[in-house]
Amino acid sequence: MKTVIVGGVAGGMSAATRLRRLDETAEIVVLERSGHVSFANCGLPYYIGGVITDRNALLLQTPASLKARFGLDVRVDSEVTAIDRDAKTVAIADLATGKTYTESYDQLILAPGAAPFVPTIPGVERALALRNIADTDKLADAVATALTKPDPTAVIMGGGFIGIELAENLTERGLKVTVVELANQILAPMDVEMAALVEKHLAKHDVTVVTGAAVSEIGTDEVTLSTGATLPATLVIAAIGVRPETGLAEAAGLALGERGGILVDAQQRTSDPAIYAVGDAVVKVDALTGGQALVPLAGPANRHGRLVADVIAGREVRASGVQGTAILGAFGLSAAATGWTEKRAVAAGRKIRVIHTHPANHAGYYPGAEGMALKLVVDAETDAILGAQGVGGSGVDKRIDVIATAMRGGLTASELAELELSYAPQFGSAKDPVNMLGFIAENLRDGLTETVQWHEVDAEVAKGVQLVDVRTTTEYGRGTVVGAINIPVDDLRARLDEVGDDVIVHCQVGLRGYIAARTLAQTGRRVRNLDGGYRTWARI
Ligand SMILES: Cc1cc2nc3c(=O)[nH]c(=O)nc-3n(C[C@H](O)[C@H](O)[C@H](O)COP(=O)(O)OP(=O)(O)OC[C@H]3O[C@@H](n4cnc5c(N)ncnc54)[C@H](O)[C@@H]3O)c2cc1C
Protein backbone atom coordinates (compact mmCIF):
# COMPACT_ATOMS: atom_id res chain seq x y z
CA MET A 1 0.00 0.00 0.00
CA LYS A 2 1.24 3.44 -0.88
CA THR A 3 0.58 6.45 1.32
CA VAL A 4 1.33 9.93 0.03
CA ILE A 5 1.53 12.76 2.56
CA VAL A 6 1.21 16.45 1.68
CA GLY A 7 3.14 18.55 4.21
CA GLY A 8 6.19 17.32 6.05
CA VAL A 9 6.18 19.05 9.40
CA ALA A 10 4.09 18.42 12.54
CA GLY A 11 1.05 16.43 11.43
CA GLY A 12 2.51 15.00 8.23
CA MET A 13 5.73 13.77 9.77
CA SER A 14 3.99 12.29 12.83
CA ALA A 15 1.80 10.30 10.44
CA ALA A 16 4.76 9.18 8.31
CA THR A 17 6.98 7.96 11.14
CA ARG A 18 4.17 6.26 13.08
CA LEU A 19 3.03 4.49 9.93
CA ARG A 20 6.52 3.14 9.42
CA ARG A 21 6.67 1.94 13.03
CA LEU A 22 3.41 0.08 12.43
CA ASP A 23 4.10 -1.22 8.93
CA GLU A 24 7.56 -2.02 7.60
CA THR A 25 6.11 -2.77 4.15
CA ALA A 26 4.23 0.49 3.56
CA GLU A 27 5.45 2.75 0.77
CA ILE A 28 5.45 6.28 2.24
CA VAL A 29 6.08 9.41 0.19
CA VAL A 30 6.19 12.82 1.90
CA LEU A 31 5.88 15.92 -0.29
CA GLU A 32 6.89 19.23 1.25
CA ARG A 33 6.66 22.58 -0.53
CA SER A 34 9.33 24.37 1.49
CA GLY A 35 13.00 23.48 1.55
CA HIS A 36 12.83 21.73 4.96
CA VAL A 37 10.88 19.02 6.72
CA SER A 38 10.27 18.28 10.36
CA PHE A 39 11.58 21.64 11.54
CA ALA A 40 10.81 23.18 14.92
CA ASN A 41 8.29 25.89 14.02
CA CYS A 42 7.59 26.61 17.68
CA GLY A 43 11.27 27.41 18.17
CA LEU A 44 11.54 29.92 15.31
CA PRO A 45 10.87 33.07 17.42
CA TYR A 46 13.66 32.03 19.80
CA TYR A 47 16.17 31.73 16.97
CA ILE A 48 15.21 35.27 15.92
CA GLY A 49 15.77 36.39 19.52
CA GLY A 50 19.15 34.69 19.78
CA VAL A 51 18.05 32.25 22.51
CA ILE A 52 18.59 29.38 20.07
CA THR A 53 21.87 30.24 18.44
CA ASP A 54 22.43 27.19 16.27
CA ARG A 55 20.17 27.28 13.19
CA ASN A 56 20.73 23.52 12.74
CA ALA A 57 19.02 22.93 16.09
CA LEU A 58 15.75 23.94 14.39
CA LEU A 59 16.16 21.27 11.75
CA LEU A 60 15.16 18.15 13.62
CA GLN A 61 15.40 15.82 10.61
CA THR A 62 16.45 15.90 6.96
CA PRO A 63 15.21 13.82 4.02
CA ALA A 64 18.41 11.78 4.35
CA SER A 65 18.00 11.11 8.08
CA LEU A 66 14.35 10.18 7.57
CA LYS A 67 15.34 7.83 4.78
CA ALA A 68 17.98 6.20 6.96
CA ARG A 69 15.87 5.72 10.07
CA PHE A 70 12.36 5.31 8.72
CA GLY A 71 12.77 4.39 5.06
CA LEU A 72 10.68 7.38 4.04
CA ASP A 73 10.76 8.92 0.57
CA VAL A 74 10.81 12.61 1.56
CA ARG A 75 10.88 15.24 -1.17
CA VAL A 76 11.37 18.90 -0.30
CA ASP A 77 10.72 21.80 -2.71
CA SER A 78 7.83 19.66 -3.92
CA GLU A 79 4.45 21.35 -4.08
CA VAL A 80 1.32 19.29 -4.62
CA THR A 81 -0.76 21.38 -7.00
CA ALA A 82 -3.80 19.16 -7.61
CA ILE A 83 -5.52 15.97 -6.54
CA ASP A 84 -7.20 13.68 -9.06
CA ARG A 85 -9.52 11.70 -6.83
CA ASP A 86 -10.77 9.38 -9.59
CA ALA A 87 -7.28 8.44 -10.76
CA LYS A 88 -5.95 8.58 -7.17
CA THR A 89 -2.98 10.69 -8.16
CA VAL A 90 -1.51 14.01 -7.10
CA ALA A 91 0.19 16.51 -9.40
CA ILE A 92 3.53 17.74 -8.08
CA ALA A 93 5.59 20.76 -9.05
CA ASP A 94 9.29 20.26 -8.37
CA LEU A 95 10.15 23.80 -7.34
CA ALA A 96 13.90 23.18 -7.69
CA THR A 97 13.80 22.03 -11.31
CA GLY A 98 10.49 23.53 -12.50
CA LYS A 99 9.36 20.06 -13.63
CA THR A 100 5.91 18.64 -12.91
CA TYR A 101 4.90 15.02 -12.49
CA THR A 102 2.22 12.86 -10.91
CA GLU A 103 2.37 10.36 -8.09
CA SER A 104 -0.24 7.71 -7.40
CA TYR A 105 -1.59 6.89 -3.93
CA ASP A 106 -3.72 4.32 -2.18
CA GLN A 107 -4.20 6.71 0.72
CA LEU A 108 -3.52 10.41 0.75
CA ILE A 109 -2.91 12.40 3.94
CA LEU A 110 -3.28 16.15 3.75
CA ALA A 111 -1.24 18.01 6.38
CA PRO A 112 -0.69 21.39 4.68
CA GLY A 113 -1.08 23.49 7.84
CA ALA A 114 -2.26 27.07 7.96
CA ALA A 115 -0.85 30.18 6.31
CA PRO A 116 -0.29 33.48 8.11
CA PHE A 117 -3.09 35.91 7.37
CA VAL A 118 -1.75 39.00 5.62
CA PRO A 119 -4.12 41.98 5.41
CA THR A 120 -4.67 43.77 2.11
CA ILE A 121 -3.39 47.20 3.10
CA PRO A 122 -1.11 49.58 1.20
CA GLY A 123 2.56 48.71 1.68
CA VAL A 124 1.85 45.22 3.06
CA GLU A 125 4.67 43.73 0.94
CA ARG A 126 7.05 45.16 3.58
CA ALA A 127 5.41 43.06 6.32
CA LEU A 128 7.23 39.86 7.28
CA ALA A 129 5.48 36.73 8.56
CA LEU A 130 6.98 33.78 10.40
CA ARG A 131 6.01 30.25 9.46
CA ASN A 132 8.98 28.33 8.12
CA ILE A 133 12.76 28.32 7.84
CA ALA A 134 12.79 30.56 4.76
CA ASP A 135 10.69 33.15 6.65
CA THR A 136 13.06 32.82 9.60
CA ASP A 137 16.13 33.48 7.47
CA LYS A 138 14.42 36.49 5.92
CA LEU A 139 13.36 37.88 9.29
CA ALA A 140 16.79 37.24 10.83
CA ASP A 141 18.39 39.21 7.95
CA ALA A 142 15.83 42.01 8.34
CA VAL A 143 16.55 42.22 12.08
CA ALA A 144 20.30 42.37 11.41
CA THR A 145 19.75 45.21 8.90
CA ALA A 146 17.38 47.04 11.26
CA LEU A 147 20.00 46.89 14.00
CA THR A 148 22.45 48.83 11.80
CA LYS A 149 20.04 51.79 11.87
CA PRO A 150 19.72 54.31 14.68
CA ASP A 151 16.86 53.58 17.16
CA PRO A 152 15.44 50.57 15.31
CA THR A 153 11.76 49.89 15.86
CA ALA A 154 9.34 47.07 15.09
CA VAL A 155 5.58 47.13 14.75
CA ILE A 156 3.93 43.75 15.20
CA MET A 157 0.44 43.48 13.76
CA GLY A 158 -1.45 41.10 16.03
CA GLY A 159 -1.26 40.37 19.76
CA GLY A 160 -1.64 36.60 19.55
CA PHE A 161 0.86 34.05 20.85
CA ILE A 162 3.32 34.40 17.95
CA GLY A 163 3.05 38.21 18.02
CA ILE A 164 3.88 38.36 21.73
CA GLU A 165 6.70 35.79 21.42
CA LEU A 166 8.20 37.94 18.68
CA ALA A 167 7.71 41.08 20.79
CA GLU A 168 9.87 39.52 23.49
CA ASN A 169 12.51 38.25 21.11
CA LEU A 170 12.82 41.43 19.06
CA THR A 171 13.07 43.46 22.27
CA GLU A 172 15.86 41.18 23.48
CA ARG A 173 17.66 41.90 20.21
CA GLY A 174 17.45 45.64 20.85
CA LEU A 175 14.44 46.81 18.84
CA LYS A 176 11.78 49.05 20.36
CA VAL A 177 8.58 47.08 19.80
CA THR A 178 4.94 48.09 19.51
CA VAL A 179 2.21 45.47 19.25
CA VAL A 180 -0.94 46.67 17.47
CA GLU A 181 -4.06 44.62 18.19
CA LEU A 182 -7.53 45.26 16.79
CA ALA A 183 -9.42 43.69 19.71
CA ASN A 184 -9.67 45.38 23.10
CA GLN A 185 -7.10 42.92 24.52
CA ILE A 186 -4.18 40.81 23.41
CA LEU A 187 -4.23 36.98 23.63
CA ALA A 188 -7.73 36.01 22.50
CA PRO A 189 -7.67 32.63 24.36
CA MET A 190 -7.72 34.57 27.63
CA ASP A 191 -10.20 36.95 29.22
CA VAL A 192 -9.53 40.67 29.30
CA GLU A 193 -8.53 40.92 33.00
CA MET A 194 -6.05 38.04 32.60
CA ALA A 195 -4.59 39.42 29.36
CA ALA A 196 -4.22 42.77 31.15
CA LEU A 197 -1.59 41.16 33.40
CA VAL A 198 0.45 40.23 30.34
CA GLU A 199 0.01 43.72 28.88
CA LYS A 200 1.32 45.26 32.12
CA HIS A 201 4.30 42.90 32.12
CA LEU A 202 5.08 43.79 28.50
CA ALA A 203 4.91 47.50 29.39
CA LYS A 204 7.47 46.88 32.18
CA HIS A 205 9.77 45.46 29.55
CA ASP A 206 9.34 48.46 27.27
CA VAL A 207 6.94 46.84 24.80
CA THR A 208 4.08 49.16 23.87
CA VAL A 209 0.70 47.52 23.30
CA VAL A 210 -1.92 49.43 21.33
CA THR A 211 -5.35 47.78 21.45
CA GLY A 212 -8.50 48.71 19.55
CA ALA A 213 -6.53 49.74 16.46
CA ALA A 214 -5.27 48.18 13.24
CA VAL A 215 -2.40 49.07 10.96
CA SER A 216 -4.07 50.61 7.92
CA GLU A 217 -1.00 51.52 5.87
CA ILE A 218 2.67 50.59 5.87
CA GLY A 219 5.11 53.27 4.71
CA THR A 220 8.88 53.20 4.22
CA ASP A 221 9.85 53.73 7.84
CA GLU A 222 6.51 53.98 9.61
CA VAL A 223 2.99 52.64 9.81
CA THR A 224 -0.34 54.45 10.01
CA LEU A 225 -3.01 53.14 12.33
CA SER A 226 -6.78 53.11 11.86
CA THR A 227 -6.88 55.80 14.57
CA GLY A 228 -4.81 58.10 12.34
CA ALA A 229 -1.73 57.82 14.57
CA THR A 230 1.63 56.98 13.01
CA LEU A 231 4.32 54.81 14.53
CA PRO A 232 7.96 54.49 13.50
CA ALA A 233 8.56 51.01 12.06
CA THR A 234 11.95 49.91 10.81
CA LEU A 235 10.46 46.42 10.69
CA VAL A 236 6.83 45.34 10.30
CA ILE A 237 5.60 41.87 11.26
CA ALA A 238 2.27 40.29 10.28
CA ALA A 239 1.15 38.02 13.13
CA ILE A 240 -2.59 38.52 12.82
CA GLY A 241 -3.47 34.85 12.81
CA VAL A 242 -3.51 31.93 10.44
CA ARG A 243 -5.91 30.52 7.87
CA PRO A 244 -6.22 26.80 7.12
CA GLU A 245 -4.60 25.91 3.80
CA THR A 246 -7.64 24.38 2.15
CA GLY A 247 -6.98 25.31 -1.51
CA LEU A 248 -6.01 21.79 -2.60
CA ALA A 249 -8.88 20.14 -0.73
CA GLU A 250 -11.40 22.66 -1.97
CA ALA A 251 -10.29 22.30 -5.59
CA ALA A 252 -10.62 18.53 -5.23
CA GLY A 253 -14.19 18.97 -4.02
CA LEU A 254 -13.60 17.79 -0.44
CA ALA A 255 -16.09 19.04 2.14
CA LEU A 256 -15.07 21.98 4.27
CA GLY A 257 -16.38 22.89 7.73
CA GLU A 258 -18.45 25.91 8.60
CA ARG A 259 -15.33 27.80 9.73
CA GLY A 260 -13.30 26.98 6.64
CA GLY A 261 -11.06 24.04 7.60
CA ILE A 262 -11.17 20.61 5.94
CA LEU A 263 -13.99 18.54 7.42
CA VAL A 264 -12.93 15.16 8.85
CA ASP A 265 -14.55 12.37 10.85
CA ALA A 266 -13.31 10.77 14.07
CA GLN A 267 -10.71 8.83 12.05
CA GLN A 268 -9.52 12.07 10.35
CA ARG A 269 -11.10 10.87 7.09
CA THR A 270 -12.28 13.59 4.72
CA SER A 271 -15.42 13.30 2.58
CA ASP A 272 -13.30 11.06 0.32
CA PRO A 273 -12.57 7.80 2.21
CA ALA A 274 -9.12 7.49 0.58
CA ILE A 275 -8.07 10.96 1.77
CA TYR A 276 -7.28 11.88 5.37
CA ALA A 277 -6.42 15.30 6.77
CA VAL A 278 -4.78 16.48 9.99
CA GLY A 279 -3.34 19.55 11.67
CA ASP A 280 -3.99 23.25 11.31
CA ALA A 281 -5.80 22.74 7.99
CA VAL A 282 -8.66 20.74 9.48
CA VAL A 283 -11.72 21.44 11.54
CA LYS A 284 -11.42 19.89 14.98
CA VAL A 285 -14.07 18.86 17.43
CA ASP A 286 -14.55 21.11 20.44
CA ALA A 287 -14.11 18.89 23.51
CA LEU A 288 -16.86 20.70 25.38
CA THR A 289 -19.63 20.88 22.82
CA GLY A 290 -18.72 18.47 20.05
CA GLY A 291 -19.04 21.45 17.69
CA GLN A 292 -16.54 22.52 15.05
CA ALA A 293 -13.40 24.38 16.09
CA LEU A 294 -10.21 25.65 14.45
CA VAL A 295 -7.34 25.12 16.88
CA PRO A 296 -3.95 25.68 15.24
CA LEU A 297 -1.70 24.06 17.83
CA ALA A 298 1.15 21.58 17.62
CA GLY A 299 -0.28 19.06 20.11
CA PRO A 300 -3.46 18.21 18.19
CA ALA A 301 -1.55 18.20 14.86
CA ASN A 302 0.95 15.64 16.17
CA ARG A 303 -1.70 13.58 17.96
CA HIS A 304 -3.96 13.39 14.93
CA GLY A 305 -1.04 12.66 12.60
CA ARG A 306 -0.19 9.66 14.75
CA LEU A 307 -3.85 8.62 14.81
CA VAL A 308 -4.16 8.64 11.02
CA ALA A 309 -1.27 6.21 10.78
CA ASP A 310 -3.09 3.96 13.24
CA VAL A 311 -6.25 4.12 11.13
CA ILE A 312 -4.34 3.28 7.95
CA ALA A 313 -2.62 0.40 9.73
CA GLY A 314 -6.04 -0.98 10.65
CA ARG A 315 -6.15 -0.08 14.34
CA GLU A 316 -9.46 0.97 15.84
CA VAL A 317 -8.99 4.51 17.13
CA ARG A 318 -10.99 7.72 17.41
CA ALA A 319 -9.80 11.29 17.65
CA SER A 320 -10.78 13.02 20.89
CA GLY A 321 -11.96 16.62 21.07
CA VAL A 322 -9.59 19.52 21.51
CA GLN A 323 -9.47 21.89 24.48
CA GLY A 324 -7.02 24.40 22.99
CA THR A 325 -4.55 24.06 25.86
CA ALA A 326 -1.81 26.60 25.18
CA ILE A 327 0.98 28.47 26.93
CA LEU A 328 3.06 31.55 26.24
CA GLY A 329 6.24 32.82 27.81
CA ALA A 330 7.11 36.52 27.77
CA PHE A 331 9.99 38.07 29.72
CA GLY A 332 9.78 35.39 32.42
CA LEU A 333 5.99 35.51 32.71
CA SER A 334 3.85 32.50 31.80
CA ALA A 335 0.32 32.81 30.45
CA ALA A 336 -1.58 29.58 29.89
CA ALA A 337 -5.14 28.58 29.13
CA THR A 338 -7.27 25.53 28.51
CA GLY A 339 -10.86 25.20 27.40
CA TRP A 340 -13.27 28.09 27.20
CA THR A 341 -12.88 31.65 28.34
CA GLU A 342 -15.59 33.43 30.31
CA LYS A 343 -16.40 35.58 27.27
CA ARG A 344 -16.88 32.50 25.13
CA ALA A 345 -19.07 30.75 27.69
CA VAL A 346 -21.21 33.87 28.06
CA ALA A 347 -21.50 34.21 24.27
CA ALA A 348 -22.62 30.57 24.13
CA GLY A 349 -25.35 31.40 26.65
CA ARG A 350 -23.95 29.14 29.38
CA LYS A 351 -24.82 29.90 33.00
CA ILE A 352 -21.42 30.06 34.64
CA ARG A 353 -19.56 30.55 37.88
CA VAL A 354 -16.17 32.24 37.69
CA ILE A 355 -13.37 31.92 40.24
CA HIS A 356 -10.24 34.08 40.48
CA THR A 357 -7.42 33.28 42.90
CA HIS A 358 -3.93 34.66 43.45
CA PRO A 359 -1.88 31.86 44.99
CA ALA A 360 1.87 31.42 45.23
CA ASN A 361 3.53 28.64 43.26
CA HIS A 362 4.83 27.10 46.50
CA ALA A 363 4.69 27.62 50.25
CA GLY A 364 5.14 31.33 50.94
CA TYR A 365 7.59 30.71 53.80
CA TYR A 366 10.00 28.86 51.50
CA PRO A 367 12.33 31.31 49.70
CA GLY A 368 11.58 32.19 46.09
CA ALA A 369 7.78 31.85 46.07
CA GLU A 370 6.26 33.48 42.97
CA GLY A 371 2.70 34.67 42.62
CA MET A 372 0.21 33.80 39.93
CA ALA A 373 -3.35 34.62 38.97
CA LEU A 374 -5.63 31.68 38.25
CA LYS A 375 -9.12 31.73 36.80
CA LEU A 376 -11.60 28.89 36.55
CA VAL A 377 -14.77 28.99 34.46
CA VAL A 378 -17.38 26.54 35.71
CA ASP A 379 -20.79 25.48 34.39
CA ALA A 380 -23.18 26.66 37.11
CA GLU A 381 -25.68 23.91 36.36
CA THR A 382 -23.41 20.87 36.16
CA ASP A 383 -20.26 22.01 38.01
CA ALA A 384 -18.29 20.96 34.89
CA ILE A 385 -15.00 22.75 34.31
CA LEU A 386 -15.36 24.82 31.15
CA GLY A 387 -11.91 26.36 31.14
CA ALA A 388 -9.00 27.76 33.09
CA GLN A 389 -6.42 30.48 32.68
CA GLY A 390 -3.24 31.28 34.55
CA VAL A 391 -0.76 34.14 34.44
CA GLY A 392 2.33 34.43 36.61
CA GLY A 393 5.74 33.04 37.37
CA SER A 394 6.76 29.44 37.95
CA GLY A 395 4.07 26.82 38.32
CA VAL A 396 1.41 28.26 36.01
CA ASP A 397 2.07 25.50 33.46
CA LYS A 398 1.65 22.79 36.10
CA ARG A 399 -1.71 24.14 37.33
CA ILE A 400 -3.19 24.60 33.88
CA ASP A 401 -1.98 21.17 32.79
CA VAL A 402 -3.50 19.54 35.88
CA ILE A 403 -6.81 21.26 35.17
CA ALA A 404 -6.62 20.33 31.47
CA THR A 405 -6.12 16.72 32.54
CA ALA A 406 -9.02 16.95 34.98
CA MET A 407 -11.22 18.28 32.18
CA ARG A 408 -10.17 15.44 29.92
CA GLY A 409 -11.02 12.97 32.68
CA GLY A 410 -14.43 14.56 33.24
CA LEU A 411 -13.79 15.74 36.81
CA THR A 412 -16.08 18.47 38.10
CA ALA A 413 -14.76 21.76 39.46
CA SER A 414 -15.54 20.69 43.05
CA GLU A 415 -13.60 17.46 42.53
CA LEU A 416 -10.42 19.52 42.06
CA ALA A 417 -10.57 19.79 45.86
CA GLU A 418 -9.92 16.05 46.10
CA LEU A 419 -6.85 15.86 43.86
CA GLU A 420 -3.81 14.56 45.68
CA LEU A 421 -0.90 16.48 44.22
CA SER A 422 2.79 16.26 45.01
CA TYR A 423 3.87 18.58 47.79
CA ALA A 424 6.99 19.76 49.56
CA PRO A 425 7.46 23.46 50.41
CA GLN A 426 9.72 24.20 47.44
CA PHE A 427 7.21 22.72 44.95
CA GLY A 428 3.69 23.54 46.09
CA SER A 429 1.40 23.82 49.07
CA ALA A 430 -0.40 21.17 51.07
CA LYS A 431 -3.51 22.83 49.72
CA ASP A 432 -2.32 23.27 46.15
CA PRO A 433 -3.67 26.21 44.11
CA VAL A 434 -5.67 23.65 42.12
CA ASN A 435 -7.19 22.27 45.35
CA MET A 436 -8.03 25.85 46.39
CA LEU A 437 -9.98 26.37 43.17
CA GLY A 438 -11.83 23.16 44.02
CA PHE A 439 -12.62 24.34 47.57
CA ILE A 440 -14.06 27.59 46.24
CA ALA A 441 -16.02 25.78 43.53
CA GLU A 442 -17.47 23.49 46.20
CA ASN A 443 -18.42 26.44 48.45
CA LEU A 444 -20.12 28.15 45.51
CA ARG A 445 -21.90 24.99 44.43
CA ASP A 446 -23.17 24.37 47.96
CA GLY A 447 -24.24 27.98 48.51
CA LEU A 448 -21.75 28.53 51.37
CA THR A 449 -20.56 31.65 49.64
CA GLU A 450 -21.80 33.91 46.88
CA THR A 451 -19.46 36.00 44.77
CA VAL A 452 -19.66 39.00 42.51
CA GLN A 453 -17.32 39.59 39.57
CA TRP A 454 -15.12 42.66 39.09
CA HIS A 455 -17.24 43.83 36.16
CA GLU A 456 -20.52 43.52 38.11
CA VAL A 457 -19.61 45.77 41.06
CA ASP A 458 -20.64 49.13 39.58
CA ALA A 459 -24.13 47.94 38.71
CA GLU A 460 -24.64 46.48 42.20
CA VAL A 461 -23.46 49.67 43.91
CA ALA A 462 -25.83 51.69 41.68
CA LYS A 463 -28.65 49.49 43.03
CA GLY A 464 -27.71 50.54 46.58
CA VAL A 465 -25.63 47.55 47.66
CA GLN A 466 -23.05 48.50 50.31
CA LEU A 467 -19.35 47.92 49.65
CA VAL A 468 -17.10 46.99 52.57
CA ASP A 469 -13.33 46.71 52.27
CA VAL A 470 -12.27 44.26 54.99
CA ARG A 471 -8.53 44.77 54.58
CA THR A 472 -6.43 46.71 57.08
CA THR A 473 -6.73 50.49 57.30
CA THR A 474 -3.26 50.78 55.75
CA GLU A 475 -4.21 48.68 52.75
CA TYR A 476 -7.46 50.63 52.41
CA GLY A 477 -5.47 53.88 52.41
CA ARG A 478 -3.44 52.69 49.43
CA GLY A 479 -6.55 52.38 47.26
CA THR A 480 -9.87 50.60 47.37
CA VAL A 481 -12.85 49.72 45.19
CA VAL A 482 -14.62 53.02 44.52
CA GLY A 483 -17.27 53.70 47.16
CA ALA A 484 -16.12 51.11 49.73
CA ILE A 485 -16.10 51.81 53.48
CA ASN A 486 -13.39 50.14 55.57
CA ILE A 487 -14.06 47.63 58.35
CA PRO A 488 -11.06 45.32 58.80
CA VAL A 489 -12.10 41.68 59.03
CA ASP A 490 -10.81 41.39 62.61
CA ASP A 491 -13.08 44.29 63.73
CA LEU A 492 -16.16 43.07 61.91
CA ARG A 493 -17.97 41.38 64.79
CA ALA A 494 -17.64 44.56 66.91
CA ARG A 495 -18.86 46.84 64.12
CA LEU A 496 -21.83 44.94 62.76
CA ASP A 497 -24.09 47.98 63.23
CA GLU A 498 -22.22 49.73 60.37
CA VAL A 499 -23.02 46.94 57.91
CA GLY A 500 -26.18 47.04 55.80
CA ASP A 501 -28.49 44.17 54.83
CA ASP A 502 -27.13 43.70 51.32
CA VAL A 503 -23.38 43.96 51.12
CA ILE A 504 -20.38 43.20 48.92
CA VAL A 505 -17.20 42.58 50.89
CA HIS A 506 -13.75 42.63 49.41
CA CYS A 507 -10.18 42.12 50.48
CA GLN A 508 -6.98 41.95 48.46
CA VAL A 509 -7.41 38.57 46.74
CA GLY A 510 -10.62 37.08 48.12
CA LEU A 511 -9.61 35.05 51.18
CA ARG A 512 -10.31 37.54 54.00
CA GLY A 513 -13.41 38.55 52.05
CA TYR A 514 -14.60 34.97 52.22
CA ILE A 515 -14.04 34.86 56.00
CA ALA A 516 -15.94 38.16 56.39
CA ALA A 517 -18.71 36.89 54.15
CA ARG A 518 -19.15 33.77 56.28
CA THR A 519 -19.29 35.91 59.45
CA LEU A 520 -21.88 38.27 57.98
CA ALA A 521 -23.95 35.59 56.25
CA GLN A 522 -24.54 33.97 59.64
CA THR A 523 -26.17 37.24 60.84
CA GLY A 524 -28.87 36.92 58.16
CA ARG A 525 -27.45 39.52 55.77
CA ARG A 526 -27.09 38.95 52.02
CA VAL A 527 -23.33 38.98 51.48
CA ARG A 528 -21.30 38.57 48.35
CA ASN A 529 -17.53 38.41 48.18
CA LEU A 530 -15.74 40.24 45.38
CA ASP A 531 -14.17 37.33 43.47
CA GLY A 532 -10.41 37.74 43.16
CA GLY A 533 -10.55 40.77 45.47
CA TYR A 534 -9.22 44.24 44.91
CA ARG A 535 -6.33 42.87 42.86
CA THR A 536 -8.60 41.51 40.13
CA TRP A 537 -10.90 44.57 40.22
CA ALA A 538 -7.98 47.00 39.98
CA ARG A 539 -6.53 45.29 36.90
CA ILE A 540 -8.79 47.02 34.43
C1 LIG B 1 6.38 30.70 14.77
C2 LIG B 1 5.44 29.65 15.26
C3 LIG B 1 5.44 29.31 16.60
C4 LIG B 1 4.56 28.35 17.08
N1 LIG B 1 4.59 28.04 18.40
C5 LIG B 1 3.75 27.08 18.87
C6 LIG B 1 3.80 26.69 20.23
O1 LIG B 1 4.62 27.17 21.02
N2 LIG B 1 2.91 25.74 20.65
C7 LIG B 1 2.00 25.17 19.81
O2 LIG B 1 1.22 24.31 20.23
N3 LIG B 1 1.95 25.52 18.51
C8 LIG B 1 2.79 26.45 18.03
N4 LIG B 1 2.75 26.79 16.70
C9 LIG B 1 1.75 26.15 15.85
C10 LIG B 1 2.23 24.80 15.36
O3 LIG B 1 3.49 24.93 14.78
C11 LIG B 1 1.22 24.26 14.36
O4 LIG B 1 0.00 24.09 15.01
C12 LIG B 1 1.64 22.94 13.75
O5 LIG B 1 2.91 23.03 13.15
C13 LIG B 1 0.61 22.50 12.73
O6 LIG B 1 1.03 21.32 12.09
P1 LIG B 1 0.59 21.01 10.60
O7 LIG B 1 1.23 19.72 10.28
O8 LIG B 1 -0.86 21.13 10.47
O9 LIG B 1 1.19 22.18 9.74
P2 LIG B 1 2.70 22.64 9.57
O10 LIG B 1 3.53 22.16 10.69
O11 LIG B 1 2.66 24.10 9.32
O12 LIG B 1 3.17 21.89 8.26
C14 LIG B 1 2.50 22.07 7.05
C15 LIG B 1 3.50 21.96 5.92
O13 LIG B 1 2.78 21.69 4.74
C16 LIG B 1 3.46 22.28 3.67
N5 LIG B 1 2.52 22.42 2.55
C17 LIG B 1 1.39 23.19 2.49
N6 LIG B 1 0.79 23.03 1.30
C18 LIG B 1 1.53 22.17 0.59
C19 LIG B 1 1.41 21.63 -0.70
N7 LIG B 1 0.41 21.95 -1.50
N8 LIG B 1 2.36 20.76 -1.13
C20 LIG B 1 3.39 20.40 -0.32
N9 LIG B 1 3.54 20.90 0.92
C21 LIG B 1 2.63 21.76 1.38
C22 LIG B 1 3.91 23.61 4.22
O14 LIG B 1 5.02 24.08 3.49
C23 LIG B 1 4.24 23.26 5.65
O15 LIG B 1 5.61 23.10 5.86
C24 LIG B 1 3.65 27.74 16.19
C25 LIG B 1 3.65 28.07 14.84
C26 LIG B 1 4.54 29.01 14.37
C27 LIG B 1 4.53 29.36 12.91
Describe the structure concisely for a colleague.
The protein is α/β, with parallel strands linked by helices. It is built from 15 helices and 30 strands.
| N-to-C span | 59 Å
Structural class: alpha/beta
User: What is the number of helical segments per DSSP (H or I, 4+ residues)?
Assistant: 15
Mean pLDDT: 96
Strand percentage lies at: 15-25%
Spans of at least 5 consecutive residues with low confidence = none
Fraction in helix: 25-40%
Q: Which ligands occur here?
A: flavin-adenine dinucleotide
Largest sheet, strands/sense/barrel: 5 strands, parallel
Tell how many strands the DSSP assignment holds. Answer: 30
Within the largest sheet, what's the order of strands?
3-2-1-7-18
- Describe the global form: globular
Rg, Å, rounded:
26 Å
Q: What this model shows, in words?
A:
It is a single chain. With 540 residues, this protein is an alpha/beta fold. Helices cover 27% and strands 24% of the residues. It contains 15 helices and 30 strands. The strands form 8 sheets. The protein has a 5-stranded parallel β-sheet with strand order 3-2-1-7-18. It has a 5-stranded parallel β-sheet with strand order 9-16-10-11-12, with helices on one face. The mean pLDDT is 96. Flavin-adenine dinucleotide binds at residues 6-7, 9-12, 31-34, 41-42, 44-45, 79-80, 111-113, 130-132, 162, 245, 248, 279-281, 296-299, 301. The site of flavin-adenine dinucleotide has 33 residues, from helix 1, helix 2, strand 4 and helix 8.
Which features characterize this protein?
27% helix, alpha/beta, 540 residues, binds flavin-adenine dinucleotide, 30 strands, five-stranded parallel beta sheet, 24% strand
